[in-house]
Amino acid sequence: MKSLNVNNKIVSSKKSLKEICVEQPFLIINTSCGIGKYKFNKIGYDQNNKLIFEYSLIKDTDYKDTTSILFKIGKYYYLTAEQLLYAFKFLANS
Fold it and tell me: C-alpha angle 62/64/69, rounded to 5°?
């Protein structure tokens, strides 16, 4: 896994990624069913033994698509390490 500077921290390991997820547990994700607010839940591995980050959909009245997302996609959203790093890089630059 490549290193990436996120919020003045060098991210290069599973432990570092988990620390960042715990420090900044919320992500706003634009799904195919709308925009929802998600909270970091846990780290796991997919069938190819790649890191997967699980986020849980939060019921937040500011996000009106939550019910549709829950019905069509479900409560959980999974990101690869690369997708997560991209999301944090995007947040750091905004």
Answer: 120
> How many CB atoms are closer than 10 A to CB 40?
20
Predicted model pTM: 0.78
Place of tokens 């997967």: 52
Residue 1 has pLDDT above 70, yes or no: no
Burial 67-89 (b: 16+ CB within 10 A, else e): eebeeeeeeebebebeebbebbe
The string of DSSP codes covering 54-79 is EEEEE--TT-TTHHHHHHHT-SEEEE
pLDDT > 90: percent of the chain: 52
**How many Cα neighbours within 13 Å face the side chain of 70?**
12
